[in-house]
Design goal:
Blueprint: E1 10-12, E2 15-17, H1 20-34, E3 36-38, H2 39-46, H3 50-62, E4 66-68, E5 72-75, H4 78-82, H5 84-88, H6 93-104, E6 112-115, E7 134-138, H7 141-147, E8 153-157, E9 161-163, E10 168-170, H8 172-179, E11 183-188, E12 192-194, E13 198-201, H9 204-215, E14 217-223, E15 235-238, E16 245-247, H10 254-262, E17 266-268
Parallel strand pairs: 6-7, 6-11, 7-8, 11-14, 14-16, 16-17
Antiparallel strand pairs: 1-2, 3-5, 4-5, 9-10, 12-13, 13-15
Length: 277
């Protein structure tokens, strides 16, 4: 097994030394594919001591990217989020497409809407391109790229720090920028939603932007496939009360529909269940 190409190494006294940043990237890439890793294994591969590797694992655990074990580490689901966009866009794609077709029914000419950078909501753009006088405010670079040539859509890209892996814009400037706008509707994603913990995410930056969009909207639509319902993730960032509608797929447990309704959250999974008044 080897993850290395010549440009990953720094030669020193004929030994190949890997920098801390590259060591940690190698660890994460291994866990993404193999779910677990041993300290000895990585130490041999990068020509480092086991003490050094344990420090690397400790740093990555502090960031919520893995869980340390006695002899190494195991995968944390946040690793999938780290390599998120290109991988996640194809997960449950049929369900995501179904969800976005329903969500588009709630968007009318003249609306001002927030769309965040989630892999589900990004598919919404396919169904809103022809809506007249629509204003879309987003932090997503792929959504911006998809809509930039449509004259019927006023497109506002949130400014701030670009995260190249997630293809989105975050940071303090982004939060301030979002606060300058008000939308009548927000379409947001999540990594998990539950009756006990509300809305959760793998990523603090993403969670902060999503919550800010919800906070500055009259109505909030959470788009998530049924696998995320009654699931909890790393960062708890919004209560159920901040959501008006959850749009999901037909695989949702129907018992949950009434439970969420009792908490004043409408859980929509079919077009005939659309009723926003």
């Amino acid at each position: 097994m080897s993850y290395f190409t010549g440009n990953l190494y720094i030669k020193m006294n004929t030994k190949k030394i890997v920098s801390p940043v590259l060591r940690r990237e190698i660890i994460l890439k291994h866990l993404k594919s193999h779910d677990s890793i041993s300290t000895q294994e990585i130490a041999r591969e990068v020509n480092a001591s086991e003490i050094t590797i344990r420090r690397d694992l400790s740093k990555l655990e502090e960031k919520g990217l893995l869980v340390r074990t006695r002899n190494g580490a195991i995968k944390n689901s946040a690793i999938d989020d780290l390599f998120a966009y290109d991988d996640k866009i194809n997960q449950h794609k049929e369900e995501k497409d179904y969800i976005c077709r329903i969500a588009a029914e709630f968007i009318a000419p003249g609306d001002v809407i927030f769309i965040d950078c989630g892999s589900t909501v990004s598919l919404l753009v396919s169904y809103i391109r022809e809506i007249e006088s629509l204003t879309v405010i987003t932090n997503s670079l792929p959504i911006t790229s998809e809509l930039i040539n449509y004259n019927n859509i006023k497109l506002i890209l949130i400014g701030g720090e670009v995260n190249n892996k997630r293809k989105a814009i975050y940071g303090y400037s982004a939060m301030n920028n979002i606060a300058q706008y008000h939308a009548n509707k927000a379409f947001i994603g999540t990594d998990g939603i539950s009756l006990s913990n509300g809305i959760t995410s793998h990523n603090v930056q993403s969670a902060s932007v999503t919550f800010k969009m919800a906070e500055n909207s009259d109505e909030v639509f959470l788009l998530c496939d049924s696998s995320k319902i009654e699931k909890n993730s790393l960062v708890k960032f919004a209560p159920l009360s901040s959501i008006d509608y959850v749009i999901t797929d037909q695989n949702v447990d129907h018992i949950l529909v009434s439970k969420y309704s009792a908490r004043n959250v409408k859980l929509i999974y079919e077009k005939e269940h659309i009723d926003i008044h």
